[in-house]
Amino acid sequence: MAEGFLVIFVLFVLGLLAALYKRTAAARWLIATGAALAAIQAAWALHAGTQGFGVALALAGQPMRFAYSTDALWLMFFGFAPATLAVALCTPARQGSAGWLFGVAVSLLGALGVYGAQDAYAFLIAWELMSLGGAAMLLSESLSAQSGQASLFMLALLEVGAVALLLACLILGHAAHGAMGFAQFPQAARGMSGGLKIFLGLLLLAGFGAKLGLLPFYEWFAGAYASGSGASGAILSGVILNAAFFALARGLVQWLPGGGLWLLILGAVVTAIGVLSAIFTVLHALQQNDWRALLSLSTAENASVAVTALGACLIFRENGHADLAALAWTVAFLHLAGHALAKGGLFLCADGIYRSVGRYTIEQRGWLRRAGPALGVGALCCAMSLAAIPPQMGFVSEWFTFQTVFQGFHLDDLGSKLILALAGAGLALTAAVALATFIKLFGVGLLGARPAGDRQPFPKRYGWCVLALGLGVLVCAAGLPVWIKALDDIDFAIFGAHGAAAMADNWILVPLTNTFAFISPSKLVIAMPLLATIPLLLLWAGWRRRPRRARVWYGGMIEDPQRAATSSLSFANALRNYYRFIYRPVQSAVRTHGANVYFLQSLDFRHDVANMFETILFDPLREFVWRLAGGLRRLQSGDLNFYLSFIGLLLAAILFLTLWQ
Length: 661
Known about the structure:
Blueprint: H1 2-20, H2 24-48, E1 52-59, E2 62-69, H3 70-89, H4 97-116, H5 120-141, H6 147-175, H7 185-190, H8 194-212, H9 221-225, H10 230-255, H11 261-286, H12 291-318, H13 322-357, H14 367-371, H15 373-386, H16 393-406, H17 414-447, H18 460-478, H19 480-483, H20 488-495, E3 504-505, E4 508-509, H21 521-541, H22 568-571, H23 573-578, H24 580-583, E5 586-593, E6 600-608, H25 612-632, H26 640-660
Antiparallel strand pairs: 1-2, 3-4, 5-6
Helix pairs in contact: 1-2, 1-4, 2-3, 2-4, 3-4, 3-10, 3-13, 3-18, 4-5, 4-10, 5-6, 6-8, 8-10, 8-11, 10-12, 10-13, 11-12, 11-17, 12-13, 12-16, 12-17, 13-15, 13-16, 13-18, 13-20, 15-17, 15-18, 16-17
């Protein structure tokens, strides 16, 4: 397995070099082959039942060790699988394909480091590579007029997170007497005070939350993702997001051992931030009119659900329920597994639409009729999973998430019970809005009628890739009673409890015990098609009756049905008004008249929703930076007398400090 890792590393490096020399075909297949081998190797290691493997390397004469545990391999497989198809299809922005492939290679190399690094130095370097690679991907494509601004905003927030991670590693390294290996961090944290452990947990939450899209960091998602392609979104939502969550789970669960009041407080904060982030992101996802922006905010919502499960894990651990802590931890990893496959499929679907019409707008164009059953089945499976509709993987993982927070009645203190009960209520709201979001995406974006005269074909290769990922989601859910046992060894290693093994009872999934609740996605895959025969028989019985077709009612006027069809904006209007205290919608209509005011020549309607943290946090910070830059601009006046005076004052200050000491 170590040799396989080295082959993957070499393939990514060769792909990077080929992209630098603009050998795009060679770079594309080298990187795609490396991603496919990474997925295959992770799957084989999980199948073999190994607890991971290690690789020893040397960088600039310094020994470095990479070790890939079972949980890392789990997320690697489900992240690299859609990434393989995304790289093989490549970016639809042909003019920037070489730069895009370079960014992909850098990001995937960084992800390999994040999954396997065993010391803070290698980890931080790999973390920065992921950020820079993502920016290179988006900037090389430039599929949005604001791509530069969006990428810069993304990098600024990611660097805030990187500084938080650096500070956390330095504190842990100092407590470990200068040792920066992850193996020394748990022992170093044991001697810290509860307040310092909470501070470290918040640093880790902020650092990793910058990539996961926790509040307030989710506000870079829509702009940055919308400046790139669906292929970029599939990589960022799969490999990169999974790597960030794996690092957060390792930091909170393994680097900060022990228990006490500090762990309860930290678990409550993590749970609250996860639930609030999920609510805000899914509410804003519903309002998006762009495939990439909607799917990006849905990515942040799913990451927030996984973080909520991680917070519940900390609460259970503090209360001494190792089995429930293992359950919550496993559920988080299950949720991101199905999410990576489903989200990759819909991002590639968006790229297929862009290839056909040159834009990513969610509008009715009858894609399912022109694309064939491959796209329809694949996109339906992916959308059902993200909307948590049975029997897909997303439904199973969200069902497990609810069952996990419902286990709060086992806890002793009222505060912990109340936190998990409120978390369940917040997740219920999130699930309801997520269902509406993907009904909108699938119904308006794929099911709508095709405009008259529109004959643009949908690329078949995209349809087959979407089908492969959609069926992968379904197979993952149907075979979960078998696959889930791969996580049991790492459950026992971390918590001392066989959590994953207790979640499967033959072909039934249970939250540790079948006396509380149970579900069987494997049996649902068989039962639901059988139940579908009922409406099919009714349809067949009424087939002889010719349906009556009439024009859409349009205020009493005869109007083209396509113009009167439900749009993305009108679908989300009701919820936008109901939650207007969050959205704060802004709209304007500019009318142009001719000689007579009764005859309208043009109508320019614009609508937007306000980002909460942009007005509260980011705009004041931006204004402060501009004011500070304006003040510092005087230092570049070019006045020699000013420079000499400044140097003189500086020397006087140094002399004063020297004499004072």
